[in-house]
Amino acid sequence: MMDSRRDFLKKAGILSSLAVSLPTLVNANATAEAFNMCGYAAPKIDKVRVAVIGLGMRGPGAVERLSFIEGCEIVALCDKHPERVEKAQKILTSKGLNAAKSYSGEDGWKSLLKEEKLDLVYICTPWDYHALMSIAAMKAGNHVACEVPIALTIKDCWEVVKTSETTKKHCMMLENCCYDFFEMLTLNMARQGLFGELIHGEGAYIHDLLDLNFAKNGYDQMWRLRENIKYNGNLYPTHGLGPVAQCLNINRGDKMDHLVAMSSNDFMMGEKAKELAGKDSFFQEFVGKKYRGNMNTTLIRTAKGKTIMLQHDVTSPRPYSRLHTLSGTKGFAQKYPTENIAFGHEFIKEEKLKELYDKYTPELVKYIGDKAKEVGGHGGMDFMMDWRLIDCLRNGLPLDQDVYDAASWSCIVPLSFESVEKNCKTVAVPDFTKGAWKSNNPVDITLKGGGNTPIRSKNAKKENVQLDV
């Protein structure tokens, strides 16, 4: 196990160095001087030219959602498997949109970055490629939107941050849960002081993925199952952490300081591998591996003395939950199993909760929420995220999630692994803002300066048919 882990970490370092060593992709305008990307407003882009890389699990949905956004043109599609590219092309042509240029093969993404004139590279590949491709795409002169996590090592987190700063290119991790409706409500309520001073937050990714992780036709080459062997920690922290971190103004008034993590033993994945191998020799290579524990619990303390609890369990048979719990000096909120808010010993009544929704739902959600639900993507939060991203780029606005968020939320993966491996040792959380968290401003959740990006009709066959927003 130790040898395989060293090989993996060595591979991750090689990926970083490879990304840095792509001389033909270096942005001529990059400078060596660090630049604070928090609140950075890049030049406006009237029509955002997008390339989508990775068309397996998440990529086709991204193509579908982006195809509804006016001012967004998908000019290139890429996947290792050419049949996936062709399938994604039909998403565009079925709407009367132009087909994108196709790239495929192991190095197709490299050719894409060399040959295409782009504004945004949208990355939906397996985790091992996220840092590598994000760094290369920024060096090629493009903004980046990448699925979670942005990186799997601290070294790669720092390299992603450095590249964004030196190229002045946005690197937004696509943490869609920040755009879910209750999370947005509680963020605005926290901003308005309804919870008083927030003291504690909880987030999680509790999702029974046991069968999917072992599905032969699920993740390409069983990559996600293999990640459950490489790491014994919180493999997927950002869905729970992102919304809580925004409510606590992490990187914008406070920062995560240190953490401690503990994992249970694995009680199910090893047994599942043996069970499946008894019926199908395909699974024999997964027998006898040391899988990550069923439940990982990570506790984080911030510089200002706040605490965050994160949990990760994608094996146990239990209902889905991201927790999303906020506890303050005046109030309390929790999303699962039902949305509830309290300002004392009891939760408020349903009618009062509706009043809070009416009053404190952010402008962004009121403006685009119904249309986002119509287009879809995890109940609409995916589309709201994509529309907001394109609208910000078109209007030269700062993004809701910057590269420091991407790095600090993602670094929980390797840090939790380190803490678990060292018998729950306390581990410091890097300050990727390099002290700028003390003066960085909180995320602006208004539509000031933007909100003018139209949406194509869901049934449109022509580009000029729009939803009324």
From TrEMBL:
Annotated ranges, domain Gfo/Idh/MocA-like oxidoreductase N-terminal: 48-173
PROSITE patterns documented for this protein: TAT
Pfam families referenced in this protein's UniProt entry, alphabetically: GFO_IDH_MocA (PF01408), Glyco_hydro_109_C (PF21252)
Keywords: Glycosidase, Hydrolase, NAD
GO molecular function: hydrolase activity, acting on glycosyl bonds; nucleotide binding
Top-level taxonomic group: Bacteria
Cofactor(s) needed for function: NAD(+)
Domain Glycosyl hydrolase 109 C-terminal: 184-341
Residue stretches in coiled coil: none
Family the entry assigns: Belongs to the Gfo/Idh/MocA family. Glycosyl hydrolase 109 subfamily.
UniProt protein name: Acetylgalactosaminidase
